[in-house]
Design brief:
The chain is of the alpha/beta class. The chain is built from six helices and nine strands; from the N terminus they run βαβαββββαβαβαβα.
Length: 209
């Protein structure tokens, strides 16, 4: 049986302004058999319901749904943080928190990234997309410190470059790539053992050991 603990199978993604369009583009080219779980924080107003799962379902071949308290983490699904709740990852399940805002927002990218790094260590791939502000920078640093992979959208390719620029300024990022290159990169990383980071054009054969 495959040892999933040896693969990059936990993908955490943060975005803000311009994020809906960017996420639509990203999920559109992810394969329907991707052997990973994806978790997304998009900054949204607490006062209005989130339609992001509905929007992304039109583009994604993977199931997309809002995270629910104590929901079990399943491979091959995309989970969205609901409005006004931090999304935290535990070993095997999700927790929704109503703690203080971080970087003036809840849900916050930092909270998701930190919790993922603490629970899953080098299995985590952290991705920062378009957005204003600095949310995600501190969390991406924690992902890096715990042996995870860090990816940032090229600021020149982002509709709103502040979040990518902040991450690049403060974190020694593994990959800085345009949006259209992120899904293929994630697909390659998922197939690689945690001890190996593929080059841009390189693929890995099979999953973990």
């Amino acid at each position: 049986m495959e040892d999933v603990s040896s693969r990059h199978d936990i993908i955490v993604i943060g975005a803000s302004l311009g994020g809906v369009k960017a996420l639509q583009t990203l999920v559109m080219t992810l394969p329907n058999d991707l052997a990973a779980s994806l978790f997304i924080v998009l900054h949204i107003l607490a006062s209005q319901p989130s339609q992001l799962p509905v929007i992304l379902r039109h583009s994604a071949s993977l199931p997309v749904l809002h995270a629910v308290e104590n929901m079990a983490i399943e491979q091959g699904k995309i989970y969205i943080a609901p409005p006004d709740h931090h999304l935290l990852l535990k070993e095997g399940y999700m927790h929704l928190g109503t703690g203080p805002k971080e970087q003036y927002v809840r849900p916050a990218v930092n909270v998701l990234f930190r919790s993922a790094a603490h629970a899953y260590g080098p299995r985590v791939v952290g991705v920062i997309l378009t957005g204003n502000g600095q949310d995600g920078t501190a969390g991406l640093q924690v992902v890096k410190q715990h042996g995870g992979i860090t990816i940032v959208q090229d600021p020149g390719d982002a509709d709103f470059p502040s979040m990518p620029q902040s991450a690049l300024k403060h974190v020694k990022v593994d990959y800085t790539v345009p949006l259209l290159s992120i899904a293929p990169l994630l697909t390659r990383l998922v197939s690689c053992p945690v001890t190996h980071q593929p080059k841009q054009s390189e693929s890995c054969n099979g999953g973990g050991a």
